[in-house]
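Repro case for the chain-ordering regression, as requested:
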Amino acid sequence: MADKTQVYEYHEKSGHIVEFAGFLMPTWYKGIIPECAAVRNAVGLFDVSHMGRMIVSGKSAEAFLNYLTPNNVAGLKPFQGHYSVMCNEEGGIVDDIIVTRYDQELFMVVFNASNRRKDVTWITENSKRFNIKLDHASDKVAMFAVQGPKARATVQKISKEEVSKIPRFGCGWLTVDEVRCSASGTGYTGEDGLEIYVYDAPVDEPWRAMKVWNAMLEAGREFDIEPCGLGSRDVLRLEAGMCLYGNDIDETTTPLEARIGWVVKLEKGDFLGREALAKQKAEGVKRLRVGMKILDRGIARAGHEILKDGKLIGKVTSGTLSPLLGYSIATGFVPKEYFNEGEKVEIRVRDKTLAAEIVKMPFYDTSKYGWQRKA
Amino acid sequence: MKVGEYEYQEGFYYTKEHEWLRIEEDKCRIGLCDYAQKQLHEIVFVDLPKVGAKVTQMQSMGTVESVKAVADVFAPASGEVVETNTKLTNSPELLNSSPFGDGWIAVIKPSSLDQDLKALMDPKAYAEFLKTISEKK
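-- result from build under test --
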């Protein structure tokens, strides 16, 4: 029996439901195309309560997370967070995560829905020698992503606190209709936006979560907010060049190969996977994740072969039509020597070979779209 | 006519994969049913067969893709493709807006129609089939 999030009732009523990572989730409501457009042009609302949330507290919480993850947790001030990963001893990615510090000895780790069980075990197993407390809060905290250029204006309408002051990857407490929440300047769409955590919202007593969800939709109405499903979420993250765990990254890929190497701070001291990552960095990576623009008509998808002059050089790990760009985009791993902007490759799609070229990511013009856009 | 939210039409033959076939004198027009387009939603790409291509009943004769999914179009009957709906190349959304009309996919000259029709459903049988699968959902 699949699980449901706090706002499943809404999804069932308004969305097209699929099972994802053991949860009954909406793949779309109105459609992937209008939902993507809402996020790029105004605001979209995603239920991401299916993701995992672990509260880590105690005297050694910082030391533990600094050991568990390659990014520098000691550098986080209260109400600051960062993107990170957890690596195994071989440097392979156990999961990609967000770590946020709420207080000197209080952190939240957010991880992928598909890895909930694995991550809880991994975090617990690796915490044994640390003086910390773990509180697996996935089922009692709801989480919504409000994304797009009108995201903050939407949240501001219904919260007492000033949300414009929350920096990207920062966070702050929030009260929405007397419900206790926090908001983080995060999301996975490439756009500016906030992720709202609703506390005291267990799955079997979802009224606080429902109240906040409905309040967001109501507040966003003047901006033509759309509730958004997993379909648009996947397209938006790929347009932004972001990795999807299980497709683009897994335990056999390292953050250096996936080009999220900025999360690896070798100089900070010991951490899980450090030795392997230091070795890979010193020797140089053999393959890299690249963005590809499909020049021919057709859609590249996960599993399709990437060829160079007819020779197999890699595989597509994610691909989609980009409604924003009007052509097909993909990401996949190729040997380092092909990592050149403008490098021509081919992608084998069933009985056809499509011309493609290696391009930078995000795939869109960052002066027009995404959080760095110039108004 | 409708079963639940799914339309179907009199005078057409149907496959279990939700393709339709309409006999037009010595040729057959082929397309995707309303059920198929509703499942795919927002069709954004169509890979049409080539004129002159030989197709075999229930073998793939092309693909249609939504943003997230790919689906084969199975030939409802064997024969030779004599015409394709080239409008779909630039307007694949016709498959969503008019599955039994402007969204047709190809016209074939059938090679063994009498035989092939035995494997297809008439509107009454297809309506029953739609009923069974929508109850399962």
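Ordering looks correct now. The interface with chain B takes residues 16, 27-28, 31-33, 231, 234-235, 297-299, 301, 320-321, 323, 350, 352 of chain A (CB under 8 Å).
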